[in-house]
Each structure stands twice: as C-alpha cells, then as structure tokens.
Specification:
Blueprint: H1 2-10, H2 17-25, E1 40-44, H3 50-57, E2 61-66, H4 70-81, E3 89-93, E4 106-112, H5 121-131, E5 132-143, H6 148-151, H7 170-177, E6 183-184, E7 188-190, H8 193-225, E8 237-243
Length: 247
C-alpha cells in the first residue's frame, strides 16, 4: 500500500494533461485566509481531491464531497498517508442534490468538471447560492461544448455517471447562473489543441498497457503541451468565477 501511495504522489494528480492544467491554474483564483481568519471551502464533486488539496495548502479549511468511492480513497491518501487532519481537510459522502442540507455556509465553492454530469444543474447551483456567504465565490469549470471532442462525446441521458450534456459555453454559464443571482467574471479557456492531442495519445496507450506504457509516453509528450500557450481559441474547458453579491 505504501509503495502504491508513493507512486500516486510522484505523479499526482495523474497523467491527464488537462487535469494537470486545472491543478496548476485554477488555484491562482482561490482565496486564502487573512491572519487570524478561518475560511471554509467546499469542493463539490471532489474527484481525486486535487483541488481540495490545493485549497487546503492555501490555508483554507476544506470539505470535499462526492457520491463515489473516491471519497474513501481520498481519505486514505490525504488523511492517512499524508497525515492531514480531518478538521483541516475532510472528505465526505454527500449528494449535491442535497448539498443545501449540509448545515454550514462556505466562503468558496469549487465545482470542477462536475456540472456536465448533473441533469438538475439549476437546482444544484441554487443550492450553491444558498450555502455561500454573501460575497462568496463559486469556481466553476466545465467542458466547452464547442470543442470537437466534447461535442461528439457520448451522452448519458439516465445520469448514471457520464456526461448528461456536452458542457457549457460562457453564454451557457450566464444563462444558468445569472438568473440565480450570481455575477460572473470573464471566462478563461483551458486546454489547447496540442495539449489535447498529447493527452489523447497518453489516454489511448493507458487503455492498452496501463501505467507501464502510459508513464513513458507522458514524459515524452507532456513538454509539448506547453506550446499551446494560454486561453486557446477553442479551449477544452471553460472556467468562470461566479460571485454571490454582498447584499
């Protein structure tokens, strides 16, 4: 088990180049507590815990929630293997459809690559608005439905874990979030064509040979992803900050 966790940490947050980009870029927009201040952050649909961990590293108290068994893995990895106390970084099994019943208010909510899996996106975002403190921020990042891969991605109409929609454009985010009361920042595009081409090759080779083949190809191709630059013309994902007004 210890060796497995060491390998996981060595390549954390994984070989997916788009996830690694989000891991590096999105925390630049997270808040951090002032001296003597305690801030509470919710990672809604926490996945492997990468953004929960980044928010924790900035001094926030973080709760990551999911309905998948990744919550158990996150607890083992961060709380047991890394020894991070649960009163600073906690992972909990909780459905986003019931997130309004969680019983606390948050300074920030992170929701990354999640809403495309949820049919009741308006319901969940209204819950987010309710549990955010005035002036709080929802960090939301989803696939760009105009990107060819997302536009042709098979959909899951029964909401069993796949994508129920191909994603959101900036206009789609505005249509979803502004009627609720959120004020949106300008969009930021993440993931250009070179990064995606490299990522596709790494993903495909992993399907054939697992990490044994995926890791060498990752080292070969990852440097080329940097050639994309920032804010590509047709990004793979779109990120916005949605703020709840002070009053």
């Amino acid at each position: 088990m210890m060796f497995r966790e060491q390998i996981k940490w060595l390549f954390f947050p994984g070989l997916n180049l788009n996830a690694r980009l989000r891991f590096r870029v999105l925390p630049k927009f997270f808040g951090r507590p002032k001296p003597g201040e305690q801030r509470l952050v919710l990672d809604a649909g926490c996945g492997n815990g990468m953004l929960s961990y980044q928010a924790y590293r900035m001094g926030n108290r973080v709760l990551g929630v999911s309905i998948k068994d990744e919550v158990v893995r996150d607890k083992k990895f961060f709380n047991e293997y890394h020894g991070i106390p649960e009163n600073r970084l906690e992972f909990r099994d909780h459905n986003l459809y019931d997130i309004d019943k969680i019983g606390v208010q948050f300074d920030e909510i992170i929701c990354c690559e999640v809403m495309e899996h949820i049919k009741g996106d308006e319901q969940v975002c209204r819950h987010f608005y309710k549990i955010l403190k005035p002036g709080g921020v929802l960090h939301i990042c989803c696939p760009n439905p105009v990107h060819p891969i997302n536009a042709n991605y098979p959909l899951d109409p029964h909401e069993t874990g796949g994508h129920v929609r191909p994603g959101y454009t900036y206009e789609g985010f505005k249509a979803l979030l502004e009627p609720i009361g959120f004020q949106l920042s300008a969009p930021i595009g993440l993931g250009g064509p070179i990064r995606q081409a490299c990522n596709t090759q790494i993903t495909n080779i992993q399907l054939v040979g697992g990490l044994k083949l995926g890791i060498p190809l990752f080292f070969m191709l990852a440097p080329f992803a940097l050639l994309d630059g920032s804010n590509p013309k047709v990004p793979f994902s779109i990120y916005v900050r949605a703020t709840k007004p002070q009053n």
